[in-house]
Amino acid sequence: MLLGVEAEDLSGFMLKRPGDKVKEGENIAFYSAFFGLMKKQVTSPKDGVIEGVSEITGQVIIRGAPIPVEVDAYLPGTIVEVVPREGAVVQTYGAFIQGIFGIGGETHGEIKVVVADNSDEITPDKITKTARERS
Asked: Residue 86 phi/psi, 5° resolution?
């Protein structure tokens, strides 16, 4: 309600359109009434791109600049492909590994083989001292 116009009329007062870049403090909408005696303007609260203008809610959505995020792979391997602006494809050796939900904090370690075949039973004597140690 910063501009004071109906949501369905908002697009007519927008100075910027979806896809346009905006800078913090830049005018993005302007309203004038009563022969210019009443004026209202709305400025962008941050740098970004106009993502959308809703004629239902009257909201203007501004997507901020992307923030690069580093993600640990948690496995050794070779980067075989770099996906621009997305990440990388890592080639490694592995088997079917399934994670579960837990309450503790995130942790990581080495996956170790303790039996020769998936039909072998894992008994306490097969778990060596090095397999019990945390990485």
From this structure: -125, -55
